[in-house]
Amino acid sequence: MDLAQLWFWIVGALFIGYFILDGFDFGVGISLPFLGKNDSERRVLINTIGPVWDLNETWVIVAGACLFAAFPEWYATLFAGFYLPLFLILIALILRGVSFEYRHQRKHESWKRSFDTMIFIGSVIPALLWGVAFANVVRGVPLNEHFDYVGGFWNLLNPYALLGGVTTLLLFFLSGLYFILLKTDGELHARAQKLAVKVGIITIVVAASFLVWTIIMSEFKLATIICSAIAAVALIGAVALNYLRKEGLSFAAVAVTVAAAVLTLFVTLFPNVMPSTIDPATNSLTIENASSSTYTLEFMSWVAVIALPLILLYQGWTYWVFRKRITHATIEAAAH
């Protein structure tokens, strides 16, 4: 395996980390109108991710920076062609972050409700559009001989990509519900468990449809079949474990599901990074023609060897410090 291929898998691993970590963040935000019956319950939900959401979000910055440095052609084509959906994701993330910081600045119910709505919208849009974007990358898009995207916005809203978007939306929602089960108790916990059962069944059906379509599109590539099977088994296991009240195991299983689903897309894509639907043989971006120089990749590899373990240790320590459950009592105590 050469350095370009290694960095293809490193970029994939970074996006896996981002979708697992920020995925349950999105899921908690999506759950607000379904589980938060009053301001106290919504504050409990928001505080489950309060100490970690911004740290989770930095993974997409790292993934994007590595994509830019390791595969500048891929980065340029992706961000130019997918400008509008990526712009909408950015706006949604900004609204979501602002809402977390400002909803508690005034006590008026209408003020808090407005920011709660923005948290919900700011969670739904990225959860949906990330799936749409990655599904389009795997499916292939119209690229000309200069590797420029020439398809327009509506070309991105094809059935396969939309199914991919709904799949990530449901997976993140389910992941967020399982995280809520780890962090809450009482009536809120009970309602989250019941909702997770319903969402889990729907997610199995939708995700299975998307994975089967991906397998067919890959022409039954062995690696795609294996990764899809792992994702399917892990998802079914997560739903079953939640039904048995095994909260930690169900959250771990859905994390494996997200990881295996993203890996499915990357192994299906390999050795391309952005296939063309116009002339796949000559117009497609591949690992070889999209990567940076060997010197750049060597330098990045040394930085990654030093920095990545430190990042993982710091994030692990953060989750350990804030591992306790959030209750109504702690919320009320913090308000005084």
TrEMBL record:
One of its GO terms (cellular component) is cytochrome complex. GO terms for biological process: aerobic electron transport chain. It is found in: Cell membrane. The chain crosses the membrane at residues 6-32, 77-98, 119-141, 161-183, 195-216, 222-244, 251-270, 299-322. InterPro entries: Cyt-d_oxidase_su2. Keywords: Cell membrane, Electron transport, Heme, Iron, Membrane, Metal-binding, Transmembrane, Transmembrane helix, Transport. It is a multi-pass membrane protein. One of its GO terms (molecular function) is metal ion binding. Belongs to the cytochrome ubiquinol oxidase subunit 2 family. PANTHER family: CYTOCHROME BD-I UBIQUINOL OXIDASE SUBUNIT 2 (PTHR43141:SF5), CYTOCHROME BD2 SUBUNIT II (PTHR43141). This is Cytochrome d ubiquinol oxidase subunit II. It comes from Mycetocola lacteus. The gene is cydB.
